Amino acid sequence: MQDGMLEQWDAETLQLIVSWRGHERKVSAADYNPKGDRIVTASDDCTAKEWDADTLQLLGTMSGGQEKRERVYSAVYSPDSRRIVTISGERTVQVWDALTFKCLNAICIIPGIKVMGVVLCNLHPDLIFSDGSRELLYRYGAIVNKHI
Questions:
Q1: What's the whole-model pTM score?
Q2: What is the rounded average pLDDT for all residues in the chain?
Q3: Fewest CB within 10 angstroms: 7, 72, 118, 120, which?
């Protein structure tokens, strides 16, 4: 949404359930945790935010990028909902604790590579991301700060 508004839609009827102002600028991504009781959103206002899916109460805010002035354009939950991974500034991948909203790890990607998306897999605890070309996939260990 261009104006920072968030909208929740019924997947079967395609009817708007509720909308609320959640960010100061455009919202670029949203993800439900696997239980469906939390929502994380990413925005051009340089933040990712976690919400209670039922009450829409703000639970916490994460500031994007190493300089904290980079737009956050992707945010996803880990399969166990304990971590949130954000992409900001097109080169920074950050792993956050979903309870404390503290950054656990930040990975600055190799210059010249623009991170387009991240996938978290139940079968392997690494971060897997693409540069968007569909030609290269990169895998980083979720704990260590190095390319595998």
A1: 0.76
A2: 76
A3: 7
Residue 87 forms part of a structural domain: yes
- Among 43, 113, 121, 138, smallest CA distance to 83 is for 121
Both tokens assigned to 19: 């909308």
| Residue numbers of the domain that contains 72 | 5-115
| Three-point CA angle 41, 39, 19, nearest 5° | 75
pLDDT tens readout for residues 24-70: 888 888 899 999 999 999 898 888 999 999 999 999 999 865 556 78
Number of structural domains the chain divides into: 1
Burial 63-77 (b: 16+ CB within 10 A, else e): bbbeeeebbbbbbbb
Nearest in space to 99 (alpha carbons), one of 60, 138, 65: 60
Q: Is residue 104 part of a domain?
A: yes
CATH number of the domain encompassing residue 23: 2.130.10.10
**What is the Cα–Cα distance from 72 to 77, expressed in whole angstroms?**
15
> Distance (Å, rounded) from C-alpha 113 to C-alpha 110?
6
Residue 98 lies in a domain: yes
In a domain, residue 142? The reply is no
